[in-house]
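Sync notes, pocket subgroup
Present: LS, DG
LS reminded everyone that the earlier model was apo-only. Rerun requested with adenosine monophosphate included. Inputs:
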Amino acid sequence: MPFSSDHPSSSAPVTQVVSFEEARHIVERHATGVCPKDAETVDLLTGLGRVLAEGVVADRDFPPFDRATRDGYAVRAEDLAEVPAHLEVVGEVKAGAWPDPGVCSVGRGQAVEIMTGAPLPAGADAVVMVEHTSLTAKTVEVRRGVSTGENFVLRGSEARTGNVLLDRGRRLDHAGIAIAAAVGKSRVQVFRKPRVAVLSTGDEVVDVDATPGPAQIRNSNAYSLAAQVQSAGGEAVRLAIAPDEPRRLRALIEEGLDCDILLLTGGVSMGKYDLVVQALGELNAEFYFTGVEIQPGRPVVFGSCSAGAPARADGDVVVGTQAMAPTPHRKYFFGLPGNPVSTMVTFELFARPMIEALAGMTPQPLIFLRARLKLEIRTELRKKTRLKRFLPAVLAGEFENAELELVRWQGSGDIAALARANCYIVIPPNCERIGAGEWIPLLMRSS
Ligand code: AMP
Ligand code: MG
């Protein structure tokens, strides 16, 4: 169905409103088809937060020897079948020392003093903790028995030489850094970050450095999005603010399509001056969805555009949900609603996995946790809706006693409320009340 080519347009675009789960699956399917950029080699610590372009492989067995996990005595378990037992101490192995079998081994009725991290001497098959022993001259009294294999880790039981310890596509966190260091990699190969264009739209939106007029607001979305892009592994490219005027908007969209992906905010609702979908349609966009049954964020749009392709004269909008990946010259875009909380929520739910994929990351499922609700939720739900809601909330409490509480908010423009929250309560469609003490799903807010 064509748009009216008049400006401003009052005709409704072809819409494809899908459920939350369906929308997420559509994005995930497309995300599996994208290719990351080429690789670069960086110092290990510079690699923190970056995505590995190579697998990290064990260069030796882990542990590289049978390693004591306690300070005590290396023994033969059968010598402690009856306790207390008295064993002859024939040597000592400290961490970093190698127990030469000819000089330091454990025979029947014997023990070798051993420290945590030291190699188990020949003949021993267990370590007894020093706490259960008393040493007098060259004899140790052992008061507790041990089983074979106790208090040491067998060579190669954590990993064998050549095993892949970190897969390509894994984002390096502190544990990954530890593994790379343990196998001797002071430099790692990571993917270059995808360039993510951030385009804010709206006649009322002004730069952060400008003094806003009485009806103007500062462009907070460009900054929250840039921060979210960075945390998803991308590099944000902030474009000029697009006015609600088709020609300039289209020019800026085309500029954005030079990047690896384009994020727009604002202008995707049903208002008279919401021109984003139309402008994208004129650039031969294919839309995979033009709305999702969620709140906040219902008007979110996802599609792809062929960069540099001639504009379609009739401005037709093609809607499809197939998992076809765009050809290399097609670029994905998300049109996120302009309300700041909607922008942030829809980024987390839909744009993040695509940016992570462009960054080379193996796709991660979105997982909801559950926690107990502190106070009844009723008034906030009095308007029944078919939409799945993501309401800002605080997960607080101590240790195992986590409790979930809704943050008071004024709707999807309320950034202050979102800043106080650390998660979203996930409320199913048509829910009118949730009682105190109920276990309910939540989505942690990524930092
Ligand atoms: P829209 O999605 O364009 O209808 O905008 C919805 C609401 O979000 C309006 O109140 C806008 O003023 C506000 N808004 C739009 N863009 C931004 C932005 N870049 N930063 C902050 N608020 C915005
Ligand atoms: Mg607007």
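DG: The longest helix spans residues 340-358.
LS: Residues 1-13, 321-326 have pLDDT under 50 and may be disordered.
Action: DG to write up.
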